[in-house]
């Protein structure tokens, strides 16, 4: 099953991912006009961020990826901080 979300639709899409062992994120080249950022979550779910053939698409994708990378680094720091504050009972 493939779902494409386009701007202008009235129904928001919210995706929540809880990473598990075996999940991955990678860059894929080939098959489309440009590279894709692909997150594989579980055996049946793939999130792909791609460049299309619209003018400026690659530049917008690059900026989006930089913002995503910055947010991902901040999120990793928050997870590290959260882990240090957790107490686990045995």
Explain what this protein looks like in three dimensions.
By secondary structure, the protein is of the alpha+beta class. It contains 1 helix and 3 strands, in the order βββα. A 3-stranded antiparallel sheet has the order 1-2-3, with no helix packed on it. Strand 2 and strand 3 form a beta hairpin.
Cα-atom radius of gyration: 16 Å
Largest sheet: 3 strands, antiparallel
Q: Please work out how many helical segments DSSP would assign.
A: 1
Instruction: Categorize the overall geometry.
Output: elongated
Give the distance, in angstroms, between the N- and C-terminal Cα atoms: 42 Å
Coarse structural class:
alpha+beta
Question: What's the oligomerization state?
Answer: single chain
- Poorly predicted runs: none
Helix fraction, binned, reads: 25-40%
Portion of residues in beta strands equals: 15-25%
Strand order of the largest sheet: 1-2-3
| Total DSSP E strands | 3
Q: Output mean pLDDT.
A: 85
Order of helix and strand elements from N to C terminus: EEEH
